[in-house]
Amino acid sequence: MSERDEIPSPYCLALTGGIACGKSTVGALLQSMGLDRIDSDQVARQVVEPGSPGLHRVVECFGEEVLTTSGGLDRPALGRIVFASDKARQELEAILHPLIWESMGRSLRQAHELKRETVFEIPLLYEKGSQTRFSTIWVVAASPQVQLRRLTERDGLSLSEAQARLEAQMKVEEKVKRADFVLINDGDLNLLKARVEEGLSLWRWVRSVPSRERS
Length: 215
Description:
Blueprint: E1 9-17, H1 23-32, E2 36-39, H2 40-46, H3 53-62, H4 75-82, H5 86-114, E3 118-121, E4 134-141, H6 144-155, H7 159-167, H8 172-178, E5 181-184, H9 189-208
Parallel strand pairs: 1-3, 1-4, 2-3, 4-5
């Protein structure tokens, strides 16, 4: 990362939270309200596309059983490996994290230079210590019961698999404590949208008002 990336841009908003809490829903709402949107999960997919150095390193580490018959990454197969072992998950993150942040760093620089309001969806923001790159952090939270239900229904996971994925990340309560703005998403989309609008207005106001006038 360059020195520029270590200086948080006022135009870049980090969005994080627990698994199955609704980060993508909030990101989509912010995009509909005029923000550019960078999804680290999408960037993670790009860095392991067929033929990429990232995919080659993943296969070197985990074997060809994580490949589909067409040569792409078999995400369910890889997920079963990394969510069953802390060591495997750490090995995967060590491969992907630098590649992801190489791309994300370019997006951060571009957003700052063009003064483009941009939301960066980053599930492992706190886990990987990336929060220092942002001056404003939003956290999307939901109850554990809602998270488990969404994981089993959305991803077809067993209850034990869903529980393992919850336990693999920092607890949502801890992320909430560190947030600048919190959104509770237990299912009411209208309430969530109103909360997003409230947060966006506040974020823009803070950026527009000189610091001496905020006190």
